[in-house]
Amino acid sequence: MNTSATTGSGLVSGYPTTAELLDGDWTSAFSGQHAASLRVIAQWWSAIVAKDIDLITATMAEDMVIELPFDESGRSETFRRIEGKAQCAAFMGRAYELERQHLGAHNPELTMSVDGTVVFIEGLGDTAVKGRVYRNRYVFRFLCAGDKITHYRQYHNPIISAYAFRRQIAGKFEPESL
What we know:
The structure is a single chain. By secondary structure, the chain is α+β, with helices and mostly antiparallel strands. It has a single domain, classed as Nuclear Transport Factor 2, Chain: A (Roll). It has helices at 18-22, 32-50, 53-58, 85-98, 158-165; strands spanning 60-68, 80-83, 106-112, 118-129, 132-145, 148-156. Strand 3 and strand 4 (118-129) form a beta hairpin. The longest helix has 19 residues, at 32-50. The chain starts with 17 loop residues before the first helix and ends in a 13-residue tail after the last helix.
């Protein structure tokens, strides 16, 4: 595997993606909740790459929650929390409209809880938003029950996000460069 990344068209290359990590039948080595969690998260990533709102909605439990604990406000007591399957699907649909292309996290590391219900994936994201290249380091936390995702939490660098989405930091200024 190539250990150096290149940027060519603005997207990271040379690293495997989350979709590639979860693709294939290697998940057959797992059973029960472990296998169910890996399958539904693989569907989630396939939907992200394809920008398929129906597929991503199918992975969600009715009481789905999406949280983004880090935001541009700089405050830890306020963050984005979206509740309910319909609201979460709408949130993801808006994200699809903003992003040029999303290949999932590159060079991912996956960690799973003993009972298979909690899965963490850390990796490098690379897309374009509003004409700006958006490269961020992410930690994704999935909570699964059966074959559904009940909770998705995304940790990312809010400064990089503010630059890409042209949002203010701490309600005061918008970064023009990084």
